[in-house]
Amino acid sequence: MTRPLLIIFLTIFVNLVGFGIIIPLLPFYAETFGASPIVIGLLFAVFSLCQLAAAPALGDLSDRYGRRPILVFSLAGTVVSFVMLALAHSIVMLFAARIVDGLSGGNISTARAYVADITAPKDRAKAYGLIGAAFGLGFILGPALSGILAKISYTAPIWAAVAITLVATVMAWLWLPETVHRAHAGTGNPFRFLPELWRRPLVRRILLIDFVYWFSFAIFQTTFALFAARRFGFDVPKTGYFFAAFGILGAIVQGGLIRPLVHRVGDKPTFLLGLGFGAAGCVAVAAAHTVTMFALALVPLALGIGFGHPTVSSLVSLVARGDEQGRVQGAASAVESLGRTIGPVWGNASLQQINEAAPYLSAAAFLLLTLAMTAGARVGARDDAAAA
C-alpha cells in the first residue's frame, strides 16, 4: 500500500468510526424526543438530501482546488454537526445537525476521487476494496463503542464521535498529500456539467444503477435498528454489537476476498454476485423470527455489500477522464444521496404503515432490478465520449 493510500485509508477509517457510532444510536436517540419511524426516516433523508445539493459542487471544487482542503472542510463540518447533535434539546435541533453534516458531507466522494488520482484503472477496484475495508473496520469499532458508551447515556457516544472525527480532521490536515494541480484541474459550475454527463449513455446507465443500488441499501441500513427493536426487542447496546459483527464480515470481504475475485472474474461479474447475495440476504432477514436466524441472514447481506460497494465505485470511476474524476464522483455521490434520501423515507414508512418485514422485501426487489439493469449494460470500460 502506498503512503497516500495508507493515509486516506486511516482518515476514512477514523471518520467512519465516528459515523458508525451515530448510525445505531440515532433512531433510539430521536425516539427520546418523540420521533416516529417516519420522522426517523426523514432524519436520515435530510442528511442525504443536503449531500445531494452539495456533493457536485464539492466534487468540482476538489478538481479545481485540490482534494485535501475539501476533505478537511467536510470532516470539520461533521465535527460541528456532532456537537449540535449532542447538545440537541428538540427534534428541530436534530434536523439542524443533520443538515449541517449533509451540506459539508463531501468526504467520501472526495476520497474516491483521491483514490482514482493515485491508482491505475486496473487497480481501482482493489484500492476501493481497501477503502471499503476502512468502512468495514469503522463499522466494527464505531457501533461497538456506541453500544458500550450508550450504557452511560445517549450523548456519551456522540461526544466520542466528536473527538474521533476531530482526530480524522487533524490527520487529513497534517499528513494527506495533495494530488491535484490547479493548472490541470477542471473548472466551471458543477451543475452545468450534469446534463453533459447525463447525455453520455454509459455514464447515464451507471448513474441509474448507482442510484437504485444505494436506494436499496439505504432501506436496509436505516430500518435496521427499528426492525431489530420491534422483532427481537433490541436496545442500543445489542444493536451496536450486531452492527459491529456486520462490520467484521464486511471488512473480511472487502479487505481480503474482493481483490482475488475481481482479478479472476472482473468488476461487473463481482458486482452482479454482490447484488444476488444482497437480495438473498434481505429476503432472509425478512423471514427471520429468531436472533440466530437473523444473525445468519446477515451473512449473505454482508457479502452483498462487500462485493457491491467497491465494484460499483470502480465502475463509476472507469467512465470518467482523469481530469474529471472529482466531477463524475460528485455526480455519482449526488445520485447516491438521492437514493439515500428516498430510501430511508420509503423503508421507515413501510415499516410503520405495513410491518417490519416490508422494507427488506422491497429492498430485495430493487436489488434484483439493479441486477437486471447491470446484466444488460456494457459496463467496466470507458464509453467513447469519456475515452476521447
Classify the secondary structure makeup into a structural class.
mainly alpha
- The N- and C-terminal alpha carbons lie at a distance of 31 Å
Domains (count):
1
Q: Classify the beta-strand content into a percent band.
A: under 5%
Compressed to H and E, one letter per element, the order equals HHHHHHHHHHHHHHH
Low-confidence stretches: 182-190, 380-388
Largest sheet: none
**Can you say what the CATH homologous superfamily is?**
MFS general substrate transporter like domains
Tally of helical runs: 15
Helical fraction: over 70%
Radius of gyration (Å) = 19 Å
Level-2 CATH architecture: Up-down Bundle
Report on the structure:
- The longest helix is centred in the middle third of the chain and has 32 residues, at 201-232.
- The chain has a single domain, classed as MFS general substrate transporter like domains (Growth Hormone, Chain: A, Up-down Bundle), CATH 1.20.1250.20.
- The protein is an all-alpha fold and 388 residues long.
- 83% of the residues lie in helices and 0% in strands.
- It has 15 helices and no strands.
- The model is unreliable at 182-190 and 380-388 (pLDDT under 50).
Short description, anyone?
The protein has helices spanning 3-31, 37-65, 67-86, 91-103, 107-118, 124-149, 155-175, 190-199, 201-232, 236-265, 267-287, 291-318, 325-353, 358-375, 384-387. It is mostly helical and 388 residues long.
Strand and helix map with partners:
Blueprint: H1 3-31, H2 37-65, H3 67-86, H4 91-103, H5 107-118, H6 124-149, H7 155-175, H8 190-199, H9 201-232, H10 236-265, H11 267-287, H12 291-318, H13 325-353, H14 358-375, H15 384-387
Helix pairs in contact: 1-5, 1-6, 1-7, 1-9, 1-10, 2-3, 2-4, 2-13, 3-4, 3-5, 3-7, 5-13, 6-7, 6-10, 6-12, 9-12, 9-13, 9-14, 10-11, 10-12, 11-12, 11-14, 13-14
